[in-house]
Task: structure prediction
Amino acid sequence: MFTGIVQGTALIKSIEKKELLWRIVVQFPQNALKNVTHGASIAINGTCLTVSEYTENTAAFDVMMETLRVTNLSLLTNGDAVNFERAAKFGDEIGGHLLSGHVHTTITISAIEKTETNCIIRFKVPAEWTKYILTKGFVAVNGCSLTVGEVANTEFNVYLIPETLDITTFGTATVGDIINLEVDHQTQTIVDTVERLGLKVDRG
Result:
């Protein structure tokens, strides 16, 4: 499990494209992999991946084609920056919200508005996933746990403080970027249950 509190950015060191499988090697900041083990889980752009090999500052991940199909990992190239989060441990403070690291779909940045104190980013969402995005609800975008601002048709926005921009890849994001989305699982369960009862969800 993860919390959506991104711990920093890492760089893609190499990508080996095998048949039906990619091996992605990521270069992490100093000490970011302290006490890592084979089989450990690390979220890369919000995608839960398993450590196959590691050195002091690098970790290799074997990524299946289904994961590549659903996420933006298939768009990565050498030198790209990615968000990372080590798996939460029992007793850790949950500063965001509980995430599985199982990305549901990808969304596209449709607009970015920056001010002196924050940044508003708007996303375009595939229509079938909009019902799970509610005003003041939670989403994870590229692994960042964020509160939904306004929702309109197939778009929603989030408000990012300077700290989030500094520690994540959103500080250099541009319109048109493809972003991983994990909707809040509790929201998904409630919406699906309400729909089975034949009721309508008000997205706010």
Remarks:
- The chain has two domains: 8-86, 105-196.
